[in-house]
Amino acid sequence: MERIYNAPCDPDSLSPLTLAFVGDSVYGLFVREQLVCEANRSVKALHRESVKSVCCQAQSACMEKLLPVLTEQEQAVYRRGRNAHTSHTPKNASPADYHAATGFEALFGYLYLKGEIGRLKELFTLIQG
Question: pTM for the full model?
């Protein structure tokens, strides 16, 4: 599997919030694919289950599982995303969870744009285990 749109892209030159913008969608697609493949459910049930996985608190918990297995480069991308200055924090999330989730999404966006789909699958599998 490779990136959908294969135009040249240097994720190292992108801001962490731009990486998180992409990573949010990439992770969301992984979650939705998993849910759909597990069982044929109503769209309402699929949405309800996906929201549980893509919320700030869940993504922050995912990062706790992933941190020990990340490469130095991946850790650096995560830290850039976590430390990025965002304009707001959702009212139902702590600032710590929101920043960790932003770092998580930046990591997923970075790996996707680097074309490291195998690594994304590996990390997603670790999150589920």
Answer: 0.92
